[in-house]
């Protein structure tokens, strides 16, 4: 028993043993230093709060446009391509996809500026393409809301203009294609007319050679190219004169092509009638700023000041009690 008590006493007198009570007493005696460090940290935090640039984030949620917002564009595509035109849902998806690409490019350009701006767009629900969340960070709440609204409107107008330019190019190409088609059909009709006159002329030669002047057959519907000379030279000459002055004969497809050409030539789509998105939530006015956070900064200042003050007290006491070993 005596041996064990002596061991306990020796361990308690060992200077390398950690004494919690002694640590607390050291901190208590150095409380002024600790409080001073805490006060200094709080003052620095307050200065930072007033000096640091504030950050406010405005958020908007958008989705694909309504049918009415792309009605003129969709109608123009239907006139241009008829049954081959994309469906309304395809048009809506393409338009919002183009808007997404444009605002992503704008976000990259703003981030690469000398003074970067934070504009971002991402899906509202992970794994789903729509709706999209667009955010913008500014130094004031009103500024964030106003600038976000401006950038969305700017990209919308740019997208509408690009769609208008694409549509104009498509109209030009389609008009050229239809004119070529009409030209080809007219050429074919002219060749058919010339071939018909040539066939009658050949029959007239045979009739004159055979001295057939008057018709030798009663049912003209049974006449073929080989028996046409039996109509007689007088009838055949009359047919040639008639075919020479007769206008070209076109198929219904020619007149349908002509109608399509007239419809397309009258097409005019105002880009201001095209909108590439629809708001689910308009840019909001943020009520809380992202940074600096006053409460969090003050709490961190108190903790950091207390830690620094405690370290100062402990290090100072350790240096005072330090005795070098011989």
UniProtKB/TrEMBL annotation:
Mode of membrane association: Multi-pass membrane protein
Ranges where the Polysaccharide chain length determinant N-terminal domain occurs: 16-121
Pathway participation: Bacterial outer membrane biogenesis; lipopolysaccharide biosynthesis
InterPro entries hit by this protein: Bact_polysacc_biosynth/exp, LPS_length_determ_N
Bilayer-spanning residue ranges: 33-51, 295-315
Location(s), subcellular: Cell inner membrane
Main localization (coarse): membrane
Family of the protein in this entry: Belongs to the WzzB/Cld/Rol family.
Record-linked PANTHER family: CHAIN LENGTH DETERMINANT PROTEIN, TYROSINE-PROTEIN KINASE
Protein known as: Chain length determinant protein
Source organism per UniProt: Enterobacter soli
């Amino acid at each position: 028993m005596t041996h064990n008590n002596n061991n306990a006493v020796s361990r308690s007198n060992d200077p390398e043993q950690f004494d919690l009570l002694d640590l607390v007493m050291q901190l208590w005696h150095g409380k002024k230093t600790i409080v001073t460090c805490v006060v200094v940290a709080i003052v620095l935090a307050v200065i930072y709060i007033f000096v640091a640039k504030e950050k406010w984030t405005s958020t908007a949620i958008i989705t694909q446009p309504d049918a009415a917002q792309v009605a003129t564009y969709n109608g123009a595509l239907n006139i241009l391509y008829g049954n081959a035109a994309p469906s309304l849902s395809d048009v809506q998806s393409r338009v919002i996809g183009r808007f997404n690409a444009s605002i992503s490019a704008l976000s990259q350009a703003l981030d690469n500026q000398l003074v970067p701006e934070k504009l971002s767009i991402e899906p509202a629900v992970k794994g789903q393409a729509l709706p999209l969340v667009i955010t913008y960070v500014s130094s004031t709440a009103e500024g964030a809301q106003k600038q976000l609204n401006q950038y969305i409107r700017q990209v919308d107008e740019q997208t509408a203009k690009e769609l208008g330019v694409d549509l104009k190019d498509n109209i030009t190409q389609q008009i050229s294609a239809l004119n070529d088609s009409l030209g080809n059909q007219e050429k074919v009709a002219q060749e058919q007319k010339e071939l018909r006159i040539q066939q009658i002329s050949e029959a007239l030669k045979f009739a004159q050679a055979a001295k057939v002047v008057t018709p030798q057959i009663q049912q003209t519907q049974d006449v073929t190219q080989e028996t046409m000379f039996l109509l007689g030279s007088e009838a055949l000459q009359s047919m040639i004169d008639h075919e020479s002055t007769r206008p070209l004969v076109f198929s219904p497809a020619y007149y349908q092509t002509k109608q399509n050409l007239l419809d397309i030539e009258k097409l005019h789509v105002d880009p201001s009638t095209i909108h590439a998105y629809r708001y689910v939530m308009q840019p909001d006015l943020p009520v809380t700023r992202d940074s600096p956070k006053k409460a969090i900064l003050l709490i961190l200042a108190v903790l950091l000041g207390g830690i620094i003050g405690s370290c100062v007290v402990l290090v100072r006491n350790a240096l005072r009690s330090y005795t070098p070993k011989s």
